[in-house]
Write a structure and sequence with these properties.
By secondary structure, the protein is an alpha+beta fold. The chain folds into three domains: 7-117, Rossmann fold (3-Layer(aba) Sandwich), CATH 3.40.50; 147-207, 2-Layer Sandwich (Dna Ligase, domain 1); 212-307 and 317-323, D-amino Acid Aminotransferase, Chain A, domain 1 (2-Layer Sandwich), CATH 3.30.470.20. The protein is 31% helix and 23% strand.
């Protein structure tokens, strides 16, 4: 009997964002977890300058700009040649984090190349990365969202908006990572806006109600999104399952799926929300390509839900191949 041909999976990581190192570390764990009995793996690193490193070892030097381990047999090409090399693969797993990848750019590239890929399409990826349009869409769809205001030309929040928002507030760039500050006094606003504007000219100032930060994973490998048990975020780390009242847990899981469907996401996402002392659940953000190191939120909440790390990855790759590209 002939041996069935393996599915060729290109894992694309690194990129030009401030989250380059995080992407590379997550890719190293992902590459280790991919089932080599089913998949032929093609690692592709992208340097901070946009060069494509074919055959790069993801875990070798994740914080470097060249992604090339000493003595490794790799080829470094420009972006156009890198895309051309993707013609020999069946599916792409893009684990680029932040701008220049996660926000719809590589998704658009892969759609034009008619190459299936893991995760959401161009629109969902783009909207999820823009906290202005993300909130607009959430509000329009009836998701519970804390009050907010968007600063474009102004560096100040009007008096009426200050009353509406209250304190504390979170000041953050609408797009991109970093530059986020929580303030408890309006006198701190100019410095916080300046820090956010160092990342993005458009700034979002949102109310920060007291409460527990909870995150829920959404997985869609069969056309029916499913939610994980919630995890709680404390000091940047996620523990799961979160100790929540059953009714509150149900609300967080329903909200996660509703946000996923509202944005027309695909494959996977992490949804973060705030659970107030009164039991209200407020939508905060959605991440359409969460980190993939085993300690990251997405693997942690699904492990707590009974789905192993390797199983998650296998399901996502197979679902992407079935879904293909184009409108669905």
């Amino acid at each position: 009997m002939e041996t069935p041909e393996k599915t060729r999976v290109a894992v694309v990581f690194g990129g030009g964002s401030t989250e380059h190192a995080m992407s590379s570390v997550g890719a190293a764990d992902l590459l280790d977890a991919l089932d080599t009995d089913e998949f032929e793996i093609v690692p592709i690193g992208v340097t901070r300058e946009g060069r494509w490193v074919l055959g790069a070892a993801a875990g070798s030097s994740p914080a470097s700009t060249d992604l090339v381990p000493a003595g490794a047999a790799v080829t470094v090409v420009d972006a156009r040649d890198g895309v051309a090399r993707l013609g020999g693969v069946d599916v792409v797993f893009p684990v680029l984090q932040g701008v220049f990848g996660e926000e719809g750019t590589i998704q658009g590239l892969l759609e034009m190349a008619d190459l299936p890929y893991v995760g959401s399409g161009v629109l969902a990826a783009s909207v999820a990365m823009d906290h202005d349009f993300l909130r607009k869409l959430a509000v329009a769809s009836g998701l519970p969202v804390a009050p907010y205001v968007v600063l474009r030309d102004s560096s100040d929040v009007a008096g009426a908006d200050r009353e509406r928002l209250g304190l504390p507030v979170v000041v953050r760039p609408a797009r991109g990572a970093g530059g986020m500050t929580e303030i408890t006094d309006w006198a701190e606003l100019p410095a916080a806006v300046a820090a956010a504007r160092a990342v993005d000219a458009k700034v979002v100032v949102a109310a920060a109600p007291a409460g527990r930060k909870v995150t829920v994973g959404v997985l869609d490998t069969s056309g029916q999104p499913e939610s994980s048990v919630p995890g709680e975020i404390v000091d940047g780390r996620v523990t799961a399952p979160a100790d929540l009242d059953r009714a509150v847990e149900r609300r967080t899981r329903d909200l996660a799926v509703e946000a996923f469907v509202t944005l027309d996401c695909a494959g996977l996402a992490m949804v973060e929300c705030t659970v107030t002392s009164g039991g209200d659940v407020l939508f905060d953000r959605i991440d359409t390509m969460p980190g993939f190191d085993p300690g990251a939120a997405f693997p942690v909440v699904w492990q707590a839900s009974g789905v192993a790390y390797t199983t998650l990855i296998t399901q996502l790759v197979k679902a992407a191949v079935r879904r293909g590209t184009g409108l669905h």
